[in-house]
Structures are given as structure tokens and as C-alpha cells.
Amino acid sequence: MPSTAVNRRGFLKASLGGSAALVAAPTLVSWLAAADAKAATAPLAFVDDYRSNVMANLTPETNAVVRVLGGMAEVWKTGAAWNTGTALRPDVLRANMRYCARVTAARTEAQAREAFVHDRQHQSYAMIGALGPLADLYRTGAKAVTSITTAPDTTPPTTISDAVPADAPAGSALGAGSYTSELGQVARLVDTVRGPFASGNPGKYTFQYPRPWRMNENSEVVDTGRTDALGYPVYDSEVVVVTQLLRQRSTSPVDDGGFPSGHTNAFHLAALAFAYAVPERFQELVTRAFELSHTRIVSGMHSTVDVMGGRIMATALAAAALADPANAELKQAARTQALAYFTRRTGTTADTLYAHAHSDAGDRYADRRANRRSVEPRLTYVLTREGRDEPLTVPKGAEVLLETRLPYLSAAQRREVLRTTALPAGYVLLDGFEQWGRLDLFTAADGYGSFASDVTVTPDASAGGFGAADTWRNDIDGRGGLTKKGTGTLTLTGHNRYTGGTVVEDGVLVSASAHALGHGDVRVVGGTVRVDEPVQVHGLFAQESGTLEPTLRAGRRKAVLTVTRRVVLGADSVLSLRLDGERPPAVGSTVRVIDAPALRGRFDRVELHGGTDRLRAVPVYTADGLSVRIVRR
């Protein structure tokens, strides 16, 4: 074993052949292969070992973060010095460098300035912008401030750090805010998730993958022997750092590794802590974390593999901190405090806060589809899939990341959501130990991606928030079915193909797309099926009791409910019709409600709602369906 020493900066070094070199990780690849074996020395789950991420531990055997970042060892072999590493997958790393060169060459001045701000501003403060209509309220309540709001026109003469402005209100604090503020528990949670075991430095020293501006297309470090106007060495690289950040670069390459990106790690850690406390903005926070992480590439300071590495470690670290029993009271206090503060300041309730949090048309993240388009390519960047897909075993503890976003699901169900929305296997950098890189939290926030077996969901309206009403937006497939219990409302908006059928026993199930109810029988034995858009039932529709609540709109050619098999109506079934508020059917018109090869039975009661008591609906039954005629009373 090499002897070890700690240099004046506190970084562990090893004496190899009489020279001081950073501890390398030449055994990463072989260790990762061996880690799959079921041996008595099998490593602990990440969430049980995350506190090992300290500078004294720079090997996969001793550091949990180094283990989860082990996919990097498949593409990069660490050298004896910072500039002697070898590309094991030249195709991947060449694509990585070409991408960075293209992005930095094409960036605008506005993008350069934005990159400067997010390089110098406290990362936790930067994430507050994802709160949209709640952002200013948060800054006020948390007393969160920053001194970095704009970028200079040229290269500053010195390094710049964020600080509390001289004119800030008393008690103000950087980052997520002051612990003594109205949102002090939220600020404390963010800082705890970003705590002493969340540093990217051990990973940087282990892998020693240089920053992109020090490498050429082949991930080789070539010092040209020249210096720039600031006195920095010039390397053979097509990646150009933004002018405003030139003075902010480190002058010590050995202490300045690129992988994993520390800023990216910090952005995602802060985002997931905020998302736990303010789940009403979960997807927007995740989106902003990806967006701000991308500015690390735009700035020229990091590469795509650096950014993906930062996200992977942050996902695991956030889960570990939130799952740690030592933080159980804090995370609950932060969520309780945030909910109480925002409902009080906005005049909302737990049930209406979500709508208020998405009520600003000027919200940068108002368009969910645009958010999805922003996140999706950045999950994998330059990586391409290889080999066959393998089922994901969700890492231990990962379900805590959805604990406040999907509170009405059990821990096992949240794990299944993560599994069925995860990326497929085959992305080399993402397939490391426990495969944290495969988790797609943006998609997971929209519920299941597949029903591998029957799923029973029981949202409780009395719990408020997402328990009272939630929406699953994914396209759900699988052999299982859905049973809706509980008093809350669940809305399905996807093009669903699950084949196990749908059962409604209580509460409200909203069908909000043409194929929301999947491929299988639909049985209503209680509660309400609300049909906002014409829907096709690929099977039997049987309503023993409960309520069918379709919305009637003028101009529709299709029936509200089209059934491929027969319709069976029980003696206790109710049809509750609602007239569209903007385009109601004209008085005297006939509207098709149900189309089916055969219809048996009749509704016990037909009701009409829509803001008037002067109209009524007259049902017209036929052998193959039901229409209603809108008439005056």
C-alpha cells in the first residue's frame, strides 16, 4: 500500500515512487465487475454508506459516491497524474468533446452572461427561480439573498464570490436562506441535503478527468507551451470558456478535475431538497436543475459526462439524506412549514396551492411539454444505447424522493413508479453501481409508466394536496390493471395501453384523453367516472352503481363514451351530465353519449348540470347506445 499524506489544502495524496501523485483508481473496472458477485464482502447500499464520501476515501471499496460513479471507469482510465489518463471508449469521449466544442462555439452573449451568473451565484439560491409564482414569496420568507445578479462585460480583474449585499435586510442569508426566518426549516433541509458528505471532490480526485478546456477532441491533454493574456496555459482544445469566467478558472489542474461537476451536483441536491418541501413545483425544480447544469457546458467549464456524473451522485445523495432517520423530523418540519407559509401568504388551501403555484402565465416553466423537451435529451446527452435492456432494481431508499409528490402511494408503489419510468439499460455512464443514473424523476412525478401487476390507489381527499387531487400524465402500459379507491380524485391523461382493466370503487377517476382508460374492461361499482374528453373503452363497460359523469359539448361528432364490447348498466347506476361552460349543446339538440355493439339495462337516474335549472336531459336508449336530448323543463 502506498503511504499517504495530506497536503496543505486537505487533499489526500499518495507517495508513489517518491513523487506526490493523487490516488488513482486503476481497479475501478475490475472492482465493479466483482461487485456483482454475491460475496460476504458485498458493499453496503448507497443510502447506508453515503457518509463514506469524504476526502480520506478515494476508492470504490471505501467511498459510496465513487462506487455509484463507477460507470465512468468504463470509458476513462485514470492515469498516474492528472494529465495521463486514457480514453477506454474513445467514441464516447470524442462525442463528448465535440458536443462541448459545438455548444461553446454557438453560444450567444446572453447565454455567456447567464452562464457567468450561475457559475458565481450560490447554487441553492439559483434554484429558487424554479418556484415560479412562489419564488418571490420564498425569498422574502426565507430572507434569501445574493450579490450575483448580472455579469460583467469583460473578464473581471479578480475572482468573484457570492456574498450578502450590504443593503440586505437584517438576518438575510445566502443560498436557501436564514434558519431563523419563516422558512428556516426549509433552508436547513436544503443545507442538510447539501451537507458534509455531499462533496464532489473525492470523485474528482479519484477519476482525474480534466475539464474540457484542457483537452482536445480525443480527451488528451496537450499543453501548447503558450499562455494567454491572463497568464494561463493554453491547451489544444476547441472548447472556449466564456470571457467573464476566464479569471475564475483554477490555476492548479491537479486540484481541478472535471468529473463529476460540483455545480451540477449542487443544483440537483438543492432542487430535490426544495422539491421535498414544495412538491407543488416538483417538475419545475427538476427542470431548472437540468437547465442550470447545462450552463456548465455552455460556459466551457464542464463536459457532458461531468454533468451527468454530477446528476447521478446528487440523485443518490439526496435520497440518502432524505432517507436518513437522523433527518426524519427535519424533512417533515420543512414540508409542514412550507405548506403553512405558502397557503397563508397566498390565501389558498392545501387543495388549491398547486393551482396557484401554476397560475402565472409569465412563469418560465409554465409549459410542462417544453420542460419535458428540455430534460429528456440531457438525461443521456451524447450517450447511445448498447446491448439489451435489463430490468432495473430500484436503489434502496430512492422512493423517498417521491414521498411528498406521491404521498398517497406506499413506499413499494413509489419504487414501482421509479422502476417503470426509468431509462432503459445500456447507457454506459448511467449503468454504474445501483444504476442511480437510470432514474428519471421528471417522468416519475407523473405517476406510473407501466402496470406490471394490478395497482390499487387510495388517495384521501381529507389529506389535502395531492391526496385530494392528482394527475398521472404518462402513457401507461403493462399487463396489470387499475383499481381506484379512496375519496380523492385521480386524473389520467395519457395514451394508456394497460390491459388489466379499470375498476372504480370510490372517489373520482377522471378520463382526460381518448385512451385514458387503457385496453381492458371498465367496471364502476362506486364513486364517479368523469369523462372530460371522448374516450374509447377497449372492452366491456359495466356500471353496477356509482356515477358516470360526461361533459357534453356542441359540435362533437363522436359519442362521449365509445365501447368496443357491450355496455351493462345496473339498477343503482347514475348518469350525471355536465354542459360545457364555453360550448354547451343547443336546446333541442341530441347528443350521443354512448356507442357500443350492445347496451343492456338503464340508468336509475339521469341528471343535468351546467348552471341552469331550466333544462333537462331526456335519455334515448337504443340497442347500441344512448343519446340525450336537451329540452326545456
From TrEMBL:
Q: Which Pfam families match?
A: PAP2, PATR
What residue stretches are annotated with the Phosphatidic acid phosphatase type 2/haloperoxidase domain? 186-322
Q: Which UniProt keywords apply?
A: Signal
In terms of domain of life, where is this protein from?
Answer: Bacteria
What range does the record give for the signal peptide? 1-35
- Which InterPro entries does this one have? Autotrns_rpt (IPR013425), PAP2/HPO (IPR000326), PAP2/HPO_sf (IPR036938), Pectin_lyase_fold/virulence (IPR011050), TAT_signal (IPR006311)
Q: Say yes or no: keyword Transmembrane present.
A: no
Q: Which NCBIfam families match?
A: autotrns_rpt (TIGR02601)
Indicate what this protein is called per its UniProt record.
Answer: Phosphatase PAP2 family protein
Species for this entry:
Streptomyces phaeoluteigriseus
The upper taxonomy is: Bacteria, Bacillati, Actinomycetota, Actinomycetes, Kitasatosporales
